[in-house]
Amino acid sequence: MIDTISMVFVVVMIIAFAIPFVIHSKKNKRKQAQVNKRILEFARMHDLSLHFTELWRNQYFLGLDEVKCQLVYLEDVGGGEPIIIDLKTIRRVHINEKIRRIKSRDNSLGDKIIDKIELILEGEVPGQQCMLEVYDGEKFSGLVNEPILAKTWEKRIHEAITKPSLKVAHI
Q1: pLDDT by residue (tens digit) across 82-141?
Q2: How far apart are CA 150 and CA 155, in angstroms?
Q3: What is the pLDDT of residue 84?
Q4: N or C: which end of the chain has fewer CB within 10 A?
Q5: Which residues, in sequence order, are CB contacts of 126 under 8 Å at separation 6+?
Q6: HSE (side-chain half, CA atoms, 13 Å) at 111
Q7: How far apart are alpha carbons 9 and 23 in whole angstroms?
């Protein structure tokens, strides 16, 4: 039978172990709420209704107003300024991955390491493009769904720029 002192000790240790996680979680929620408030205020100031939004790594933000065909991007939610990209001036979107391979012992191709993922938006003027960072290996030690996130946003942006109503309105 477990004595009372041992049981109290175990409960205290579990609580002591959990406290930093609870504090970190509350801090993250507070930071996300501040970022969301800031983005909503920015969108309201520019008369935008963001139908799709994505905040990841407490670092990056993407938002899309489908009706006005405007994309809002923020690379550093901690201190950067959001930018608005008029998708009516974009003709193509694609993903750019900067990768390197680590050779294995048997000289096969080895593992693929992704150093950077960007969404590239090409404008109507040749050579005009906008690069939106989705992941940077210099800032983060590993990927957390960024390839899927980039594909999702590539598809969303592609759908927005190829809408028939957009092409008619832009002519």
Answers
A1: 999 999 999 999 999 998 888 776 666 677 888 999 999 999 888 889 999 999 999 998
A2: 9
A3: 95
A4: N
A5: none
A6: 5
A7: 22
pTM (2 d.p.): 0.78
Identity at 12, one-letter amino acid code: V
**Residue given tokens 């598809």 in the structure block:** 155
* Long-range contacts at 40-44 (CB < 8 A, ≥ 24 apart): 42/72, 42/82, 43/72
The number of residues in the chain equals 171
Question: Counting Cβ atoms within 10 Å, is residue 121 exposed (0-12), middle (13-18) or buried (19+)?
Answer: buried
Three-state DSSP class for residue 25: helix
Token digits of residue 47: 């008369």
Would you state the structure tokens that stand for residue 109, as one six-digit string?
């191709």
Question: Where are the domains positioned within the chain?
Answer: 4-170
pLDDT tens digits, residue range 43-95? 999 999 999 999 998 889 999 999 999 999 999 888 888 999 999 999 999 99
